[in-house]
Design a protein that fits this description.
Blueprint: H1 2-46, H2 63-70, E1 77-78, E2 84-85, E3 88-104, E4 110-113, E5 118-123, E6 131-132, E7 137-142, H3 144-159, H4 164-176, H5 181-190, E8 196-200, E9 205-209, H6 228-231, E10 241-242, E11 247-252, E12 256-263, E13 276-281, E14 284-292, E15 295-296, E16 307-314, E17 325-341, E18 346-347, E19 352-358, E20 361-373, E21 376-381, E22 389-390, H7 393-396
Antiparallel strand pairs: 1-20, 2-22, 3-12, 3-17, 4-11, 5-7, 5-10, 6-9, 7-8, 9-11, 12-16, 13-14, 13-17, 15-16, 17-21, 18-19, 19-20, 20-21
């Protein structure tokens, strides 16, 4: 009896253990399924559902074609879900910015020269950049040639008063040699020679020594102009001799200046003679003024990689210091063409490429571009209005490889 009871208890214990193990396995399976379902649900929620720009795999696509695309090299074909963009036709009013400086208008440079040989008896100007006005006496010059002509005139006036033609020729000679009308009349009236004649400036401006064009040029990059070149005395001294026809001084007029603007060659097609321009000098930002492009230099200056445009302006009232840096904004250019975002194009040096949509992915494609303005690039060729492009080409590019284009 006791033996049967023991067997019964043993069987019941085994059944209970089996049931408990079965229930534990089932609970673990349900938990795993529940967790898997939640993960799938969260993944489905995180994926965009209505984005038309996301390339979707067609349900009826040929598996072999898909495999053929996937195994293509990544520097030619890319499988991605980036947004798409197409060519945008628009009319853009383009502004070109440029930097420059204010310089003397070299068309207004005047030269003071000696009409006869002689010695400087008295000098009335001393320093570079000294301000002078038209009609101001520069020096007194002693000239043996003029003194001889004076004596000839006085001889004719005393001994041959009837010879008016010769007298008139002698007077004309003195005037051509640089004697003023007033001084000539004084000699005729007093019947006495004068040992010197005055040399007067016909121009208003700053004086510079002749043969020093560096006064209108900026110093080399990274250096400063020696202040002694600006403030030192003129090399002309009293007692020095000058030759007939020698240019003694140059006069620069600060009231007539031009702005020399520099811009890169990729903006050459946008800058034309007559374009409106707004100028702001760094030394006088409150004196913004408008002008027009007057001349574009048809060459590159030495050791310079930019083109140069000139803007002439009247500096009488503005009084902008010569040498001031200026910021210029050139307007008047309207471009009506196809444009793409700047991010959609990758530069390979000489070539520009985009990633064009092809079936289930993107293919590298070469395009012809023009100017870049306001984060947009002008497209001149290589695309049609029906083409769709990846909006971010850099995102699709493998940084470890080169893009290969097959046309």
């Amino acid at each position: 009896m006791n033996s049967n009871n023991h067997h019964t208890i043993f069987r019941l214990s085994g059944v209970c253990l089996f049931i408990a193990a079965l229930m534990a396995c089932r609970a673990k399976t349900d938990a795993y399924k529940s967790q898997t379902g939640e993960n799938e649900s969260s993944m489905n929620m995180s994926m965009p559902t209505g984005d038309k720009n996301m390339p979707k795999m067609a349900t009826g696509i040929d598996t072999s074609a898909l495999l053929t695309f996937i195994i293509k090299p990544t520097n030619e074909y890319v499988r991605s879900g980036v947004p798409l963009v197409s060519l945008q036709k628009s009319r853009e009013a383009i502004e070109v910015t440029a930097l420059g400086r204010v310089a003397y208008d070299t068309r207004r440079i005047g030269s003071i020269s000696a009409r006869t040989s002689g010695r400087i008896d008295k000098l009335y100007v001393r320093y570079r950049y000294q301000k002078i006005r038209a009609g101001q006496k520069i020096m007194d010059l002693y000239s043996p040639e003029i003194l001889t002509a004076e004596e000839n005139l006085l001889f004719l006036l005393k001994n041959d008063t009837d010879n008016s033609s010769l007298t008139q020729a002698t007077r004309q000679k003195l005037l051509l040699l640089g004697m003023s009308e007033g001084q000539l009349n004084r000699i005729v009236r007093t019947r006495q020679t004068e040992l010197t004649i005055g040399l007067y400036s016909p121009y208003t401006g700053h004086i510079h020594e002749a043969g020093t064009p560096e006064t209108n040029m900026p110093p080399p990059t990274g250096t400063m102009r020696d202040i002694s070149l600006v403030t030192e005395e003129l090399s002309l001294k009293e007692g020095m001799y000058v030759q007939k026809g020698q240019t003694i001084l140059s006069v620069y007029d600060p009231d007539h200046a031009w702005a020399v603007l520099n811009f890169y060659s990729d903006r050459q097609t946008l800058v034309h003679v007559g374009n409106p321009v707004r100028l702001v000098a760094e030394t006088a930002p409150q004196k913004e003024f408008g002008a027009r492009i007057d001349f574009i230099e048809p060459f590159y200056r030495k050791e310079d990689k930019t083109l140069t445009a000139r803007v002439y302006f009247d500096n009488t009232h503005l009084q902008i210091p010569i040498g001031s840096q200026v910021n210029a904004t050139i307007t008047g250019n309207v471009q009506s063409d196809d444009w793409l975002p700047e991010t959609a194009i990758v530069s390979l040096g000489l070539d520009k490429i985009v990633f064009i949509k092809r079936d289930i992915g993107f293919k590298a494609h070469k395009v012809i571009t023009g100017i870049t303005y306001d984060h947009k690039v002008q497209v001149l060729g290589g695309l049609t209005a029906s083409d769709t492009i990846a909006i971010n080409a850099q995102y699709l590019m493998d940084s470890e490889s080169f893009i290969k284009v097959k046309e």
